[in-house]
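hey can u run this one w/ magnesium ion bound, need the structure tokens asap thx
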Amino acid sequence: MTMVDHLPPATAAGSLVPALSLRKVGKAYGSAQAPQWAVQDFTLDIADGEFISIIGPSGCGKSTLFNIIGGFFARYDGDVVVHGQSDATARRAIGSVFQEESTFAWRTALENVLFPLEAAGVPKLERLERAREMLALVGLEGFENHYPAAMSGGMKQRVSIARTLAVRPKILLMDEPFAALDEQTRILLGDKVLQIQQALKQTTLLITHNLTEAVQLSDRVVIMTYRPGRIKRIVDIDLPRPRSSEIITSERFGKLVGSIWADLREEANRGMK
Ligand SMILES: Nc1ncnc2c1ncn2[C@@H]1O[C@H](COP(=O)(O)OP(=O)(O)OP(=O)(O)O)[C@@H](O)[C@H]1O
Ligand SMILES: [Mg+2]
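ok here u go:
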């Protein structure tokens, strides 16, 4: 036995402490007498710089898990540990994109993206540059001065994505961010988010019910069971990086999608009963 044997294994990006650690987290709705468990006993370590997708059928508890991790519930079971710390301030490393459209109606697209940069005290010229750059990245160049009321659902969702990406959070937490988009836009935007994620080495947790998206982007895909949401299986996505959406036509890609779908179909069927 060498000295090295005593050390904990290094994570993918080399850091010993997981960026995000979920320890037996759970959440029940309803009363204490008749709890309805939406998420139960969910334990997962996410390495620094890792891209994880969580996939599961509608109603399996994905948004509940999102709200637990983001710190949006006053009460839940278990612990959420961010960079080794479980206090509320550690949560500030997390940037969230919500499933529901969340633009500010009284601000233009540009002003929406500027908002968190103003709050973070980013100097004026830099924040303008960053906000414009992010809007262009999500394909909204030319729509800077549009108000949400004059934009489609998918456009508003892209404003929300740009607003969160502009802050360059260490940890990116997204709940079905591409759900309102058509398949083509979804795939191309996925490529762009992936480029940023790789460049910034962002730890990313993507909640989705889209198989292609999960396999296209992730290092690992976590399949959830249907009510209560637990971990059914974790699949390593051993596709080479750097990756672009061209990979979705490869044979290996098809195999991975097929294997995940077999599990997902089982859970979706339980959900439909
Ligand atoms: N505020 C709430 N009060 C009571 N039950 C809730 C509440 N929010 C969610 N639930 C229940 O918890 C379960 C999980 O809901 P959740 O929104 O987490 O699912 P989901 O996986 O995000 O679904 P979708 O893919 O449709 O967004 C569902 O059965 C839902 O009815
Ligand atoms: Mg949801």
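The pocket of magnesium ion (ligand 2) is lined by residues 62-63, 99, 175 (CB under 6 Å). anyway lmk if its weird
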